[in-house]
Amino acid sequence: MHGDLVRNIPGIRATQNLFDDLSSRPADWQIAIAAEAAERIPTPAPLITRPFDYGTVITYSFASEHWQTSRFSDATRYGVWYGSLEIETTVYETAWHWSRFVLDSYSGEDREIVSERRVCDVRCDALLIDLRGKERIHPGLVSRKSYAFCQQVGRYVYEQGLNGLLVKSARCEGSNAAIFKAERLSNVRDRTFLTYRFNPARDTFVVERTPGRRWLSFAAGALG
């Protein structure tokens, strides 16, 4: 593959002042900003590695402190970075996981719970194993109930030192990429911002690209 993958992560639409909760005086904010800049660790590739800028887009998934159980990783030895070929696929994937997180705490709430998302294009240059279509023979690749089969595949990919996989999404008809090597990813570019509106009690999920204008809507429970 020599092209872009789409990455969908938590983000904010409007720039926020990181220091306005420490003081009400704008002069103090400028001092804090200057102090942060003076102590910042220099990096030759800030768009990739800076932890509060573009770093979360690529490096977050590969840092051991952020490993978590996912479709192709049991979080014991390695992390996996996930992106999609289509922006809509990233929505269905992240909507499922975020709605499960919300339901853990607010399952009975009959109101909209809102999350803002940041969507980026990320360049991928890698030889990937294309498993799309193999789910007809190995339905475990798209199981919505168990990651057991996929995690076996993931361990094999990791142990063989392979770059990653292209697979059919388990949530929609789109395609996902599971990348095992951070160095195969580069050139992060902001693409758009999204707003998610989820009503847990009614199981309604609305996605906005333009604030206040519905772009996609579906029942979150139908993705599981």
Characterise the protein shown here.
A hairpin with a 5-residue loop joins strand 8 (204-208) and strand 9 (214-218). This protein starts with a strand and ends in a 6-residue tail after the last strand. It has helices spanning 26-39, 46-49, 55-58, 87-106, 148-159; strands spanning 2-10, 81-84, 113-125, 129-130, 164-168, 175-179, 185-199, 204-208, 214-218. The chain contains 5 helices and 9 strands. It has one domain. The strands form 2 sheets. It has a 5-stranded antiparallel β-sheet. A 4-stranded mixed β-sheet has the order 2-6-5-4. It is α+β, with helices and mostly antiparallel strands and 224 residues long.
Topology:
Layout: E1 2-10, H1 26-39, H2 46-49, H3 55-58, E2 81-84, H4 87-106, E3 113-125, E4 129-130, H5 148-159, E5 164-168, E6 175-179, E7 185-199, E8 204-208, E9 214-218
Parallel strand pairs: 4-5
Antiparallel strand pairs: 1-3, 2-6, 3-7, 5-6, 7-8, 8-9
Summarize the structure.
This protein has one domain (2-223). Helices cover 24% and strands 28% of the residues.
Mean pLDDT: 90
Percent of residues in helices comes to 10-25%
What's the count of strands? 9
What class, by secondary structure content?
alpha+beta
- CA radius of gyration is 19 Å
Strands of the widest sheet, in order across it, are: 1-3-7-8-9
The 3D shape can be described as: globular
Query: How many structural domains are formed by the residues?
Result: 1
What keywords describe this structure?
224 residues, alpha+beta, five-stranded antiparallel beta sheet, four-stranded mixed beta sheet, 5 helices
